[in-house]
Amino acid sequence: MTLFGGPVDIAVWQRLSADFEKTHPGIKLKVEVNDWDSYWEKLRVLVAGGTAPDVFAMDASNYPDWQARGALLKLQPFIDAEPDQLKGVFPISLEAYKTPDGYYGLPRDIQTIALFYNKDMFDDAGVAYPTDSWTWDDLRAAAKKLTRDKNGDGTIDQWGLFAELIDMEVFWSSVLWSYGAEIVDVKNGKTLIGSPEAMKAWNFIAGMVLDDKSIPTSEQLRQFGLDGFQAGVTAMGVSGHWSVPDYVPATFKWGVAPMPKGPAGRATSINSAGFTISSTTQHPKEAWELLKFAIGPHAQEELAQLGFAIPIQEAITASPAYLVQKNAPIDHKLFVDALAYAHLKPVFKGYEEWASAVGDALHRAWSGEVPIADAIHEAVAAGDEVLANNR
Amino acid sequence: MSRRAEEIRGNVIAVALLLTGGIVMVAPFIWMVSTSLKLPADQYSRSLIPPIFTFANYRDIWTIMPFHIMLWNSFKIAMIATFGQLLTCSMGAFIFAVTRFRGRDALFFLLLITLMVPQQITTIPQFILFKWLGLYGTQVPMYLPSFLGGAFGTFLLRQYFKTIPIELAEAARIDGASLLTIYWRIYLPLAKPALAAFAIFAFMFSWNDLFTALIYLPSDMQTTTLPVGLALMQQQYAGKWTLMMAAVLISVAPIIIAFLIAQKHFIEGISMSGFK
Amino acid sequence: MLLLLAPTLLGLTIGVFGSVLATLALSFFDWDMLTPIKWAGTSNYSSLPNDRMFGTALINTTLFSLIYVPLTLAIGFAVACLMNRHIRGISLLRALFFLPVVSSPTAVGLLWSWIFAQDQGVLNSFITVLGGNPVNWLGPKVILYSVVIVNVWGAIGEGMIVFLAGLQAIPRELYEAARVDGATTWQRLIYVTLPAMVPSLFFQGVLSTIHAFQAFDYIYMLTRLSNGNSTFPTLVFSVYRTGFRFFRMGDAAAQAVVLTIIIALFTLFYMRIQKKFGAEA
């Protein structure tokens, strides 16, 4: 089995694989862990070279690209034989892995997005902390107040909000949804981010980036290692649960709040990492045993303690294993509650290329090269072309 | 102006210029060292001198990963690869520089072409080849190609060999020396500066080779090499520069040592007065 | 002779088939790495001009190379000439110039982003103190020069090593003779050093061109966007992205072939120049 992660994941999986071998005599498990970039590089070569690992980690966004090309084993027969396996798993987390002829993969953990805020900066500026009744306009007003030139040298050195502006997952998809817009219609090959509702959302974001300058651009953030909230130069940040371990050692006090509401209500994005089995595996039965183990209660409890994500088992998200993480004493329940208003991050074949085309166009708007309306026009055209090529 | 005075004046100007340049060149490295000695909280402080000195980073990285095992793996592979490259590239370079045969220049140009093709595309065909040879999962693909010459080294050494007067080889030929003797007895000893320079490159290429190690070695801490480990560490410690810098410095130390060893030989020629 | 050439020939055969011909062949197929390969004729080439990402990368890389190659050659050569003398402590200086070569691109990338930062950047602090207007070093207009600076900085050490080794092959007698004839330092450089260094210059010229057209590390570190894209995409980046991330190996191979042809043309051009200077290629 191979997966992406860091040294911490190795330690946990060494423990887990020992447990697995104990309860499944006769199966020998070998776990390999690589960092994200290396992982995908290696996986592509191994699978294309006919040496695919039996079980490998998958990201929901990339899943259709692999599934549509026949690299993954169909899990539906196993699930039909043991339907109880999926009981207790958040239904929305399964959505991304459903295809017309059943499942080819299952989720391992979930991510939702929330608003992080730096209490020290709010206190300094005398601004009230974000609440769950905040709207985007409240956020914008607060961000404006929190964007400051502290040392008086004429340039901004503290920004209101750290928000990833290129990739949809952490920020702009949630804003678009909360304005009542949609992102993409895969069935008809249409990129929908240019609708009138969406344009309202874009104008709101552009107002913060270009007029208020309360969201720093990636050029400005590069010197702080890209995460402005972690570096302590932004008062707020939108990010997923994966950031919690990064923020824990911070020297400032911080808290979490739900995403603010838009004209069409509150929205957040849900994405997941999962496990898949190679379509060329020699050991489908054993691989299925391992997959069951990985999404089962014992492994999920251990993984919850890593603190990177929300477990997929509803029962565990309500148990101390997830709610009481001694390293990160924050409101973890908030991330689970977000599932109630979460939208599934769109996944489809050609996703990477689509995101790349849209992201390039957006970047031109944020760097001030073209007006936002032109950039979106360009993004829709480029995105539709990719969708057409991947039908 | 006396010759001695002229030489001294030249040296002073040169050193002044080089020192200025040297500061620009070395500043980032100094900063890496300084960061590795800072507390995590001070990682973005721009002061070159750590507000509080600490060696804890160098201790802590060892608890994250078994660096010594990966260091040893990398070192072993790099030594074998460097040896293979020095031997086989110098052999090929010698032939290209000294002998004449039909199609020699075309063959050489073909060799250069292999250097120009970006390697990304051919990863998968190459993988299938090594798998077919049964070498997937072993360290062999890491150094075997080093024993099959290579465009970079052959090119570098050929260029150097061409500056050695061909009359030397011709005279030896008349005396009845074989090509092998000329290569081993005349060209190799004379090419010490170039061989030393190339040794650094060969060592460095192998030492930094993340991709081959990633694809061919199982990604466990026991068999893999340092670049794979560093990439893994970066996943989790990306924003923790003090730790990353300590790890990076440990990983580049061997190349610096290799450079210091080899550089003695770059300048050896200066004391010799041409070729005897 | 065959014995000495055997490893190279074997390696070359594998290289030609495994990389040159394989890339060429792939460029006439559609292949997504996972499903069977399909014949595509020349469609991968005919669609290249419409690929906007490739077009940008081609322009970026060409402009970059045209500035980078002469600059890195000139500075590397100058440094090597200055270094080529016997002074106590010069070996330490050489080591200083070599250090950028071994510094990790990730670490160095962060540092350069401090230097180039628009608001609190080191470079702009100097400029404002001197009364100038801050420059957006990583912005669309100046990024080309910024990445050239970083790459030249990273490559001087390599050039230095190659040129230093080359300088060792020049017999001292030549300098002595020139000196006796009353040649100035400058004349010695032009008439003694340069002709003798043509082979090294040719090598470094070809290598720098290859480096330039395959430049990636530093540029990516300074221009990376969160979705894995770059604000200054280069050719190898485009090849990698098209092939591996977009599952379009055939298109990527066609791009790689174009890239190879460009470098090969430059190499032939250098050979012409070299011939002009009387040296054999």
Description:
The complex is a heterotrimer of chains A (391), B (276) and C (281). Chain A has 391 residues and is of the alpha+beta class. Chain A starts with a strand and ends with a helix. Chain A contains 18 helices and 16 strands. Helix content of chain A is 42%, strand content 17%. In chain A, the strands form 5 sheets. In chain A, strands 3, 6, 7, 10, 11, 14, 15 and 16 form an 8-stranded mixed sheet that branches. Chain A has a two-stranded parallel ribbon with strand order 1-2. A two-stranded antiparallel sheet of chain A has the order 4-5. Chain B is flat and about 70 Å long. Chain B has one domain (57-272): MetI-like fold, CATH 1.10.3720.10. Helices cover 72% and strands 0% of the residues of chain B. The longest helix of chain B is centred in the N-terminal third of the chain and has 34 residues, at 3-36. Chain C is built from 13 helices and 2 strands, in the order αββαααααααααααα. A two-stranded antiparallel sheet of chain C has the order 1-2. Chain C is globular. At the B-C interface, α1, α3, α4, α5 and α7 of B face α1, α3, α4, α5 and α7 of C.
Primary descriptors:
heterotrimer; A: 391 residues; alpha+beta; eight-stranded mixed beta sheet; B: 276 residues; mainly alpha; MetI-like fold
How many extended strands of chain C? 2
Please give the count of helices of chain B: 14
**Helix amount of chain C:** over 70%
Order of helices and strands of chain C: HEEHHHHHHHHHHHH
The strand order across the widest sheet of chain C is 1-2
Proportion of residues in β-strands of chain C: under 5%
| Average pLDDT rating of chain C | 87
Domain count of chain B: the total is 1
Coarse structural class of chain B:
mainly alpha
Which fold name corresponds to the CATH topology of chain B? MetI-like fold
Q: Could you give me the name of the CATH homologous superfamily of chain B?
A: MetI-like
CATH architecture of chain B: Orthogonal Bundle
Radius of gyration of chain C: 22 Å
What is the CA–CA distance across the termini of chain C?
Answer: 21 Å
Number of strands of chain B: 0
Low-confidence stretches of chain C: none
Give a short overview.
The complex is a heterotrimer of chains A (391), B (276) and C (281). With 391 residues, chain A is α+β, with helices and mostly antiparallel strands.
